[in-house]
Amino acid sequence: MVEKGILFDMEKCIACRACQVACKQWNELPAEQTTFFAATGGYQNPIGLSPKTYTLVKFYEVERNKKLRWLFRVQRCMHCVDPACVKACPVEPEKAMTHLKEQGIVYVNKELCIGCGACHEYCPWNIPQIDDNVGKSSKCTFCVDRVTNGLQPACAKACPTGAITFGDYVQIKELAQQAKERLIAKGREPQIYGEKELGTGTHKIYVLPEPINFYPDLPKDPKVSEDLGFFRELLKPFGKLTLTAAIVGMVIAKVKQVKERNTITSTKEEG
Fold it and tell me: Which pLDDT belongs to residue 67?
């Protein structure tokens, strides 16, 4: 199968949430109790991703040229070309965070996952969510069961405006450039996001109709934590049979402790 990708042309998004609903339906995700206007004072609902929500339409109220405008963004796993979550996954030799490189798909093998949270900790966007009820990680699967059988992801099939386009990765990048040029011709300041991030890019590419500053929760320069290698080294003494979520949690805490101590030491030396 040819490497695949998804384009999010956000100017075309009307926040109908068809993608959000289709994702829930296909993955048989239960509803969750939410409160309208929760925390944000806006129309976004629910407030964020969770083990029950893999796809979320985010709302942004922005002022441009003294006019109030709505901007929307579909939040979900980016399906990185070189995914840090896979490198961080401590389950060996077969990873619980599974990477189908040829297709560009990253998904959780629930049978192998121990729910340790390393994938969430080292994802530059903190996308994977841990379901404490079952002790498993959850996130967008790129509809691996549909895509590998020649079907579109549920979100792309459900989108009524063409804001979500699924196709060959090379074609998706070409369409992103065309969308950017269309917006520039309209006097906008669009930005392509995902094509070059992390150096190797992601398989989910946004064309944002406004500069990234208008999307405050989207990292401008996402990076994989430099202590990932140290984390992997600390895990080496633990064998497959002794590895648990609790042990991985302690290792993550140790890494953070060492990182914080080094930061304090560095600050003192500079002072």
Answer: 84
- Joined together, the tokens standing for residue 225 give 């934590």
According to DSSP, the residues that pair with 8 across neighbouring strands are 164, 206
Residue holding tokens 């992997």?
Answer: 232
Given this model, what pLDDT does residue 124 score?
97
Q: What is the dihedral of CA 156, 105, 230, 235, to 10 degrees?
A: 120
Weakly modelled stretches of the chain, pLDDT under 70: 36-42, 241, 264-271
**Which of 245, 132, 190 has its CA nearest to residue 10?**
190
Write the CB contacts of 240 (distance below 8 Å, at least 6 apart in sequence).
Answer: 91, 92
- Could you tell me if 13 and 165 are in contact, meaning their C-beta atoms sit under 8 angstroms apart? no
Q: Whose CA is closest to 218, among 120, 129, 125?
A: 125
Asked whether the beta carbons of 193 and 212 are under 8 A apart, the reply is: yes
Helix or strand run (H / E) with residue 8: strand 4-9
pLDDT of residue 74: 97
Task: Specify the pLDDT at position 1.
Answer: 74
What pLDDT shows up at residue 41?
A: 56
Cα distances (Å, whole numbers) of residue 255 to 3, 84, 223, 242, 244: 35, 16, 17, 19, 17
Indicate if the alpha-carbon torsion angle 57, 196, 177, 175 is positive or negative.
negative
pLDDT score of 103? 95
All structural domains of the chain, each given as residue ranges with its CATH number in brackets, are 4-79+144-214 (3.30.70.20), 84-139+225-265 (3.30.70.20)
Q: Rounded CA gap, 60 and 217, in Å?
A: 10
> How much is the pTM?
0.91
User: Of 217, 175, 188, 200, nearest to 73 (Cα)?
Assistant: 217
